[in-house]
Amino acid sequence: MIELHDITKTYHMGDVDIEVLSGVSLSIGQGQLIAIMGPSGSGKSTLMNILGCLDRPTSGRYSFETREISALDDDELAHVRNAKIGFVFQSFNLLPRYSALKNVEMPLIYSGIPARKRTERAVPVLRQVGLADRMHHKPTELSGGQQQRVAIARALVNDPPLLLADEPTGNLDSRSGAEILNILTDLNKRGVTIVIVTHDQNVAARCGRVIMLKDGKIVDDRGNA
Amino acid sequence: MNFIEIFKVSIEAILSNKMRSGLTMLGVIIGVLAVILLVSIGEGARVYITKELTGLGTNLLIITPGKTSTSGGFHPPSAGTVRKLTYDDSLAIRRRAWLLTDAVPIVMGTGRIKFRNLGRDSMVIGTTPEFQRVRNLFVDIGSYVTQGDVDSKAKVVVLGTKVKEELFGDQNALGQVVMLSDARYRVVGVMQKKGTSLGWDVDDVIFIPVTSGQELFDTDSLFEILASTPRAEDVDRAIGQIKDILIRRHAHKEDFTIQTQGAMLSTMNTILGVLTAVLGGIAGISLVVGGIGIMNIMLVSVRERTREIGIRKAIGARNSDIMAQFMIEAVTLSGVGGIIGILLGVGLALVIPLFVTVLPTSVSVWSIVMAFSFSMAVGIFFGVYPARKASLQDPIQALRYE
Ligand SMILES: Nc1ncnc2c1ncn2[C@@H]1O[C@H](COP(=O)(O)OP(=O)(O)OP(=O)(O)O)[C@@H](O)[C@H]1O
Ligand SMILES: [Mg+2]
Questions:
Q1: What is the ipTM of this complex?
Q2: Which of A212, B41, B235, B305 has its CA 20 to 30 A from that of A142?
Q3: CB of A188 closer than 6 angstroms to any ligand 1 atom
């Protein structure tokens, strides 16, 4: 489903170039549940941003489904993010002015779906993450775990084949973290391909495949039993 | 993504910070209000003067002694002698210029009129009966100066209503004898009430026969001759006739000036049009300042919402969606400000003349259309930069922004 070939990412800091990713090649199959681990600063988020079409690699090829991502312009990338990829962040990144429901509907606005249809689609997704009774609450009126569930609902509302989660449990206590992880593994069982960045061995243990990143290189890539 | 959705997003953003949005709009409101108000005052002056001048008839010709060029300079007579305009000149014009209906000789000055122990300084106009028709001012009670009065230099006087009231109050003035600079005059009529016109109080005037007036002011010349033609098309030919007659009578010199009411009107129109444009332009500057206020606030707003921009981009907003969101916000601020400014401006323009009678206003549709389009243009112009800045944000940098 996804092919990364010799991806590099270099940041220019004044005179020095920092190579954050150096030659990452990776292939992700449909329906996989993958954990990416590695020390802080090893380039995990950078890799996720490239996978999520939020960032462009300095060099290398990236193909998603049959599409060559490197060749797309900004608007086409926006479309891929909107329709094909759901993103879950460590810090939730909900819009504080809007209710949970409105937040979940937001991607559908950019897909050009009319208001009534948006609600029709957002409500069941909120129910799926167990927040049917909180949909009119604003993010500030929700707990961290609940906010992250809203964020997952938002990522799922457009039925994307790929879900990317960058330390989704990093800001949560262990119980909420476990709940989020359950939601993600359930989704994976329904066929959604999921990539999770995590520092937590327990999280990694539940993923079928664990990729270790160090200094911008993949140092280990193995399947869990 | 559809426009209505982006529009809603922008409106929500405006409403979520009412105080700031209101203050930002205030700049545009004041700008538009100033444009509408000042232009309506300029227009008001123009409409007022046009009305007053056309009320006198655009076919009116004014003949004055001395030669002024069309460029306005006064040329002193080269040969030394300026023939004054005389009563006989006016008679000659009336007799021979057949295109004219009237040729009214006028002497003018101020004089003290007294009745018993009451006195008043008023403008005194010496003229002939046709004055009534030419200037559209008619006698109300009694009779006006007659041709017989003119021929016999009769000491008769017709009073403007204000003079009559000052000297006689409610009493009947007809037949009473008043003193006008040591001469005894008999009141034969009282004028209709007219009010102020073009800066002079038409009711504070007294009329006497032109011949008596020349005697009163001790002169054999005239202040001016008013003439009129029945048809506007004849004005140019009538001027030609008058010139022929006067030049022959004035030893073949053109030592007089003929102005037409129509020409004066168009000159006034031009001057006041320029004045209006200048006023509108000055007010327009304040509208531009309002636009800078919008730009300023939009820049702050873009910065504050950097993270929101990042989130929206991450879930699929295109650059053009973000651009539209902020553009609509800026244009809505300026557009709503513009509408409020128009309502207040038109309201003030309609109310002011009720309290300040010397300030006639006229609200023209074009000034409304112009002020509104200008305020929208200001919104677009000053909105583009912040909106573009917002749309070009790198999503990752924007998401990291605290
Ligand atoms: N915009 C940038 N400019 C310069 N350097 C950057 C930029 N973004 C990231 N980096 C650098 O790239 C490296 C990798 O960053 P990245 O966020 O991918 O690490 P990470 O593996 O996600 O770390 P963590 O586990 O702490 O989240 C870091 O050393 C960071 O300083
Ligand atoms: Mg990271």
A1: 0.94
A2: B305
A3: no
